[in-house]
Write the structure tokens for this entry.
Amino acid sequence: MVALANYRFGVWVRDKPFPVRFIGGKIYGAGLLASEVISGIFMDRDTDVGEELHFVHAGGINIHPQAKIGNRVGMMHGVTLGADIDGEAPTVHDDVFIGANATILGPVVVGEGARVAANSLVLSDVPAGMLAIGVPAKNIPQFRVGQSRSSGPTTAKSGGLS
């Protein structure tokens, strides 16, 4: 992906000595503009990004430079990780998925393994393993296949569904 390649290049060139940093910085700046036009993703090299960030659908993704993104995070199109009026940006931990057009604003912490539903507006912390859904988002437990609401995880029974 163009935006991630340009981001990684910008981070790499930032710590090089003067002539490489100067020339590389110009290339990075041009690449930042080009990648925003080509992929629809704005992500500054000052953003703290973990490994395996995955954009499921590119387009309309805006990530504040002060945002922190963990490992194995997935984002759909239209996601915004933005700052509040004080300039504080979100922290997204590992193994998080953010649905289409979701907006996370301010010093919000999205815990490990959490999910943010499409079109949600997150203004408060999302604990690990929870699902944030709605405007403004409310946190609810995630339910997975093989798990009932009342008894927690269950084992599969032979002979099909019951």
